[in-house]
Amino acid sequence: MTSGYTVAIAGAACTAGTELVKILEERAFPVDKLIPLDIRKFLGHDVEFNDEHIPVRVIEESSFKGVDIAFFVSGDDISREFASAAVSYGSVVIDSSSVFRMDENVPLIIPEINPNKIFQHKGIIANPGCLTIQMVLPLFAVHLKARIKRIIISTYQAVSDRGQKAMDELTDQIRNLYSFHEVIPEVYPHQIAFNALPHVDKFCDNGYTDQEMSLINETKKIFEDDTVLISATSVQIPVFYSHSQSVNIETARRITPDEVRGLLRETPGVVVEDDPLQNVYPLPIYATGRDECFVGRIRRDLSVNNGIAMWIVSDNIRKGTALNAVQIAERLISH
C-alpha cells in the first residue's frame, strides 16, 4: 500500500460511522480520499472530514472501485451484500458486523492482543463486538498469567448500540414521563427510560441471546481456547454511551487482586481506577469519549478458591467499534 489511501466507510451516516470519521481525523490517518457510503435514505447527508463536507453516496458494488481500505460499520445486511464485492475490487475490508467474526478464515482482531493475525487476512478482517473488546482487553493478560477457566459476565449496555433511533427513544421517553405523556416503545419491546431490560438481541433456543452467544464465542476465538467456560447475561439500561460489565473469573492458578492490578496497569489500552474507599471506580459518564478501557472494583471472588471479580467500563462506540477498527487499519498500513 502507498503513503496515502482511498478509504470508504459503509455506514458513514450512522453513529459508529460518524465516530469513525472523527477518529480518522484525530489520529491523522493518511487518507488521500474519503468515500462516505450509506443506504439511500441518507442521500443528501454529508460528513465533515479535515474541514471538508463530503456528501454521502448510495452504496453499491462499484462504490469500492479503487478503494484501498473499506470500513463496514452499518450492520449485518450491508456486510453480507457488499463486503465480498469490496474485496473483489481489491479493498481490504475491516468489518464491524457479526457476519464474519466466527469465520475460521477471517482474523478477529483486538490490536493490543493479536495484531500479527491481521496479516493472515484474505481480504476481510473482523472487528469483534464491543462487549468482547471491552472484556477481553483486560482479561487477556490475566489469562496468560493464570489461565482463566471460567467467566461469568453481566453487561449493562448503553442504548447507542442501537443507533440514533434508540437514543432518541430514550430522550423522548424521559421527556414524556416527566410531562405525564404516554410512553410508546418502538425500538425496544418495553419502556427503556428508568428501566432495565434483560433482553439484548434475539433469543436463541438455549435461552441466551445472539449477542450473549457472540460474546462467548468471540472470546474463545481470541483466547484460542475453547475450554474456557463462559456464561453471559446482557441488560439494556437507560444510559446513552458506554457499556458496563460485572465480571467474575476463575483461574487455574491462584492470582491475587494486587497482581491483577499490576498486570492491568501494564496492559496497553487499560486504565485501572480502583480506590473504592475514595469512591474511585469506573463510571460510564467518565468513560464516554475516551479511548481506554477502565477497570475497578478488583477483588477476590469469595465463591471459588481461585476467583477474581472486577467492574469494566468502556465507550461502546469509540473503542468498542470505531477506534478498534482504525487501530486495525493503522497496523495494516504499518506492515
Short description:
With 335 residues, this protein is α/β, with parallel strands linked by helices. It has helices at 15-26, 76-88, 130-146, 164-178, 210-223, 257-265, 284-287, 318-334, and strands spanning 5-10, 31-38, 46-49, 52-55, 57-58, 69-72, 92-95, 124-126, 148-157, 229-236, 243-251, 270-272, 293-300, 307-314. The longest helix is centred in the middle third of the chain and has 17 residues, at 130-146.
Give the SSE map.
Layout: E1 5-10, H1 15-26, E2 31-38, E3 46-49, E4 52-55, E5 57-58, E6 69-72, H2 76-88, E7 92-95, E8 124-126, H3 130-146, E9 148-157, H4 164-178, H5 210-223, E10 229-236, E11 243-251, H6 257-265, E12 270-272, H7 284-287, E13 293-300, E14 307-314, H8 318-334
Parallel strand pairs: 1-2, 1-6, 2-5, 6-7, 7-8, 9-10, 12-13
Antiparallel strand pairs: 3-4, 9-11, 11-14, 13-14
Helix pairs in contact: 1-8, 3-5, 3-8
Description:
With 335 residues, this protein is an alpha/beta fold. The protein has two domains: 5-128 and 321-334, NAD(P)-binding Rossmann-like Domain (Rossmann fold); 132-316, Dihydrodipicolinate Reductase, domain 2 (2-Layer Sandwich), CATH 3.30.360.10. Helix content is 30%, strand content 24%. It has helices spanning 15-26, 76-88, 130-146, 164-178, 210-223, 257-265, 284-287, 318-334, and strands at residues 5-10, 31-38, 46-49, 52-55, 57-58, 69-72, 92-95, 124-126, 148-157, 229-236, 243-251, 270-272, 293-300, 307-314. The strands form three sheets. It has a six-stranded parallel sheet, with helices on both faces. Strands 10-9-11-14-13-12 form a six-stranded mixed sheet. The longest helix has 17 residues, at 130-146. The radius of gyration is 20 Å and the shape is globular. The mean pLDDT is 96.
